[in-house]
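Worked example

This section walks through a single chain of length 226. The input is the sequence exactly as stored; nothing has been trimmed or padded.
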Amino acid sequence: ALRLKYHERKDAFLEENIAVKDPFCIFRDWLTDALNTKEILEPNAAALATVDAQGKPSNRFMLVKEATAEGFTFFTNYGSRKAEAIAANANVAIAIYWMPLRRSVRIEGVAEKIPQAESLKYFHERPRASQIGAAASPQSQRISSRSHLDEIESSIKAKLGPEGEVPLPNWGGYLVKPQLIEFWQGQTDRLHDRIRFRRGPNVESEVDGKLVHGGENGWVYERLAP
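Given that input, the structure is written out below as tokens.
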């Protein structure tokens, strides 16, 4: 019985209304809409799915910190569960849902560490409390209690003093280079719009002008049934 009203047919997400057939251009437009929607408090929140060396999937929410034509960047402790999974299997998936807009973006690609200099730069752009928190947390590891974290944090603060620079811990960014980006827009009649962009070896040979269409910058796109 939990049914929200989505978009009406007149607001359908149509291929002819996409000015530039490049998924990064669409993503920037949709992100701008999300940023301008006051009900969306964290428009860069996303679910990241990984698969470990045993083939077991896991999923968690994180924040996408940069989206460029290269891909999507997020940051984490390099000893975390997600980092260990990426070391074993670099194929990942990201899902973003902007509920007030009834829009979702799915991303599939390969994650790779960004250069340490870039991680260091971003690390020191964060609030100092966040830097200390990253240094204090052995992310994904078992700990005895919350007070254990508080003790580590207090020790770091005492060692550095109020002005000391926080050293970069085992922490940094990943760039997810997408091979697939799908845009979903909900329709009230449940005939949702799904337009998927793909790129990779030989995908352009699939273009037939009916089911698969040529896009910009090596991308092809196609409409999927909901």
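What to look for: Helices lie at 23-35, 81-88, 116-123, 128-136, 146-160.
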